[in-house]
Amino acid sequence: MEKQQILIVDDDSINREILMEMFREDQDVYDLIEAENGQEAVRQIESNHNIVLILLDVVMPVMDGFKVLEYMEEKSLLKEIPVILITGETIQDSEGRAYAFGVADVIHKPFYPYIVRRRSSNIIELYQNKRNMEIRLKEQEIAIREQEKEIRETNEFMIDALSSVVESRNLETGDHTKRIKYYTRILANCIKDHFPQYGLSAMQVDAISRASVLHDVGKIGISDAILLKPGKLTDEEFEIMKTHTTIGCDVLEKFYRNRSSEFYRYCYDICRHHHERWDGRGYPDHLAGEDIPLSARIVAVADVYDALVSPRVYKSPFPNTKAYEMIMEGEGGQFSPDILKAFALVKEDFFRVNEVIETFGLS
Hints:
alpha/beta
C-alpha cells in the first residue's frame, strides 16, 4: 500500500530537519518529502499525489509561502490537502491572510515540536475523516441514483403495461397514449418556457408527460358493450363511460405504493380530472378554473386534439387545422385560457407529432 506523504517546505535546513524528525517514528505510515522554497514545493505537489499534509514556511526565496497558497487555490487543492502555515512573529497580517486562503492552522516561530506534531496528527485525521465521509456519501449517492433508476424503469414498465391493456381492449385507440405523451410534453414545455407563473421545472414536465399515458386507465373497468360500441352512446351509457375517471383512480391507488410522491399526484390528477372544463361543466367533480390541476388542464387539450384528428368508427378524422380551430373555439370543451395560448404557440409541433413518431420509431 502506498504511503501517505507529508511535505515540509522551509528555506532553513535546520527547521526542515526539526520538522522531519517529529515524524520519524511514523515512517511506516508517512513518506517525508521536503522543499527549500515555494517553487520546489509546487513541483513536489505536482509530482506527488498522496500528500496528506503540508507544513509551509512563509518567508522563502524564489517563491514565498503565500504564492504557494495562491497556486493551490487556483488548482482547488486547499480543500483536499491541509496546510499548516509556519510564520515568524514579525510577519504582520500573515495569520489573517493565511486563514483567508483556508489553511488548516497557523503556527508561529519559534515552535514547539510536540505541539506541531499533535496539531498535525489531528488535522490529518480530520481531513482523512472528511475525505472518507465524502467518499461514502458519493457511494451512497450513486447507490440511490441506481435505485431511483431501477424504480423508474419498473414504474415505466408497469405504466406501459397498464396503458397497453387499455389499448388492447379499446381497438380504436391504437397509438393514442403514445401520441398523448408527446402532445403533453410539447404543451408542458411551452408552459415551462412561456408561462413562468406556473413554476414548472424540466423534471415536472417529464413527470407530467409520463403520467399522461394513464389518463384513460379506468377504461379497463368499462364493459366491452359500451367501450367498443360503434355508434353514439346513450345518456345512460355515457354516464357509465364517465366513471372511467374514478375507476382509474381506484386502479392507481391499488397499483401505486408511494402515494405521497409528486408523480403519483400527477397520475391521479390527470386520470380523475382530464375531462373537467374551465366553466365547471365537466366531470367527475365539476371543478372550474384554477381548481383544475395544471397537469389535467394540459392533458385535456392533448386528449381532445388527438380524438379529433384520429379516425373513429363513428367519424372520419378532422384535418389538423380544423381540429385546432375547433379547440380554440371551444367545440371540444372549454379549456384554460393559458393552455389555449400555449396551444396556439405550438400548434405546428402538434401537427407534426404523427410524422415524428413514425419517422423515428418513438415510443
